[in-house]
Design brief:
The structure is a homodimer of 341-residue chains.
Chain A (H helix, E strand, L loop, with lengths): L5 E4 L11 H9 L4 E5 L7 E2 L2 E4 L2 H5 L5 E4 L10 H12 L3 E4 L11 H8 L3 E3 L20 E7 L6 H14 L4 E4 L3 H7 L13 H12 L5 E4 L11 H11 L3 E7 L17 H10 L8 E8 L5 H15 L3 E2 L1 H4 L2 H11 L1
Parallel strand pairs in A: 1-2, 1-5, 2-4, 5-6, 6-7, 8-10, 8-11, 9-10, 11-12, 12-13
Antiparallel strand pairs in A: 3-4
Helix pairs in contact in A: 1-6, 3-4, 7-8
Chain lengths: 341, 341
């Protein structure tokens, strides 16, 4: 898709699954776009065949066209040495991409320097300025739209979406990951962080994403957000459901989770059958959508327990279930492809 | 509630139900706060006992503390003569309140003039700057929270909410109208336009409204927005449902409407029984809420047809139904009070 070649800035965290999650995501789902990783602490090593370098100068030898901020900053700002690093990228002629809340445009002197060197600063989390309300163009999209939804926030919807897209691409399908949140956007290099959009334009933003996605392929995997009964984030969830107008849902759940996360009232989670019915009934009248598979996150249990949980979810729902990270995304993908035809 | 005394600016439209809808709303639901109306075209007349004046000078004789923009501007900006009028209010020492999209703060010279004269400019539609995500404080509110929901946008949810509040106040209850949209805010002089809030803070804004409302009374009528299956605005609807955490719903519908408004895809409306079930199932796990009455807007049909429609809605749903504008809000209010006890 993107022709860009990235130097990924991952100073100090290139092997950290949390702080380095953007890097790890790009390395797993968009490996072909990465030419070098910058991390002085691992300089000289390589990571899945990608050289790790200590300086931007060294990184330039591998031919990057852009630098991507690949770590989560601590404290929500770029510290001084990061600011120097970003400026060094700009003076080397690299575009900069950043998916964090903290903005490149707020670093003193950086926008001026970028203009001077003719490079682009992209704060991926900033919503487009020209958003508007939904128009119905979502129903005209030529392709199949699959939305991941979940029993809760932070249960692996983005990962499930990326795994399904990756597996579909491996099989030669014209598959597209459609990112709706900060990390997904940083991984894919496009998208809209729908939770940052003014409420009136929520469905309009989701609609734009599927219209845009359809220019890139015809099997669209839309990253879900929040949960339909989450006391804090449900508005985003439902705006995304109606704006992205999915044909099919994949319902995501984490084995063992019974209480909402990021919710001070600690609500009990609905059962999988209740969630299936609720999502189907909440789908658009002009686009009734079915849940066709259950994606389980079994990362907290043993492999035996994981297999038992998959079987239990299939019994409870009558739908194919699997953990796409642990056991591969093939089974879930086939459930979607079968429902599509 | 408010101690403010208003001069309402309604130049040209003081008897227009559309362009003068803020004025008409304030006159009906907050009559006690109005001391004069400015409209040169009707100067010398009176409106429900309120004198109509031609100039701010004349208006000042009736002792206002603030001026309220009581009309909808055409073209989304204040034309030159309006700008002069607003400046004249400021130089007379009046605070200004405005519920329109167009901002007082954007009128050249007005903010400086306001500072000079020590008066306040309040753009009621601007969301507070310190909003955050919902905290669970909505579940701690001491009082009964009633949310109006609807089969569609623009079917009279605000009017039904105001009529219920007015009837409750007439009966001596500590009743509060909780405004969530531009016109309601202009009428009540407080509130948050929830559709203007960043999506992440939607439930947080609704929560703040009920927490604030509970300082003003213990029977809170929250103005609903959009509709739960509206393809464009459902995100706002659901965020408002979960953030305001109602104990009870009043379901609003317009007789004869079968297709969504403000939706280019013209979705069919769900039936009343389907809407009742969907709203009850979409309520918070920690605050299950019931629909207790049906508020019908019968303004497009004859009185006989209206009575027949009320009876039909009662048959279809098994709940009390009525048109609070045409037949009074007593029956709906009693349904709510019965459900509350």
């Amino acid at each position: 898709m993107s022709e860009k070649k990235y130097l990924i800035l991952a100073e100090g965290f290139s092997d950290d699954v949390h702080y380095g999650k953007t890097l790890r995501g790009v390395m797993r789902y968009r490996r072909e776009s990465v030419v070098a990783i910058l991390d002085t602490q691992r300089a000289g090593e390589s990571d899945d065949g990608v050289p790790i370098v200590a300086t931007v100068d060294e990184g330039m030898q591998h031919g990057p066209s852009a630098a991507l901020v690949g770590v989560v900053t601590q404290g929500g700002r770029f510290p001084g040495d990061w600011q120097e690093l970003l400026k060094s990228c700009v003076t080397h002629g690299l575009d900069l991409e950043n998916g964090l809340h903290v903005r490149l445009h707020d670093i003193p002197g950086l926008p001026e320097l970028a203009r001077e060197h003719g490079v682009e600063l992209r704060d991926l989390r900033e919503p487009p300025r020209d958003l508007s309300t939904a128009t119905g163009a979502n129903l005209e999209v030529d392709g199949t739209i699959v939305l991941t939804v979940g029993s809760d926030c932070a249960i692996g919807k983005m990962t499930a979406t990326c795994e399904l897209d990756l597996e579909a691409r491996k099989r030669g399908l014209r598959s597209v990951f459609v990112p709706t949140g900060q990390t997904g956007i940083a991984i894919a290099g496009w998208g809209i962080a729908v939770d940052a959009v003014v409420s009136d334009f929520l469905a309009g933003a989701a609609e734009r994403l599927v219209v845009e996605g359809a220019k890139r392929g015809d099997l669209l995997w839309v990253e879900g957000q929040g949960a339909i009964l989450h006391p804090v984030y449900s508005g985003v969830t439902v705006g995304l459901i109606h704006g992205s107008a999915p044909h099919l849902y994949v319902l995501c759940h984490e084995v063992g989770r019974t209480i909402t996360e990021g919710d001070p009232t600690e609500s009990p989670l609905p059962s999988l059958p209740e969630l299936i019915q609720l999502h189907e009934r909440m789908s658009l009248k002009r686009r009734p959508a079915k849940v066709v598979a259950i994606s389980l996150n079994t990362s907290t249990v043993s492999e035996d327990e994981a297999r038992a949980a998959v079987a239990a979810a299939e019994d409870e729902t009558g739908l194919p279930a699997d953990d796409p990270v642990r056991f591969g995304a093939g089974k879930l993908l086939e459930a979607v492809l079968n429902a599509q035809s």
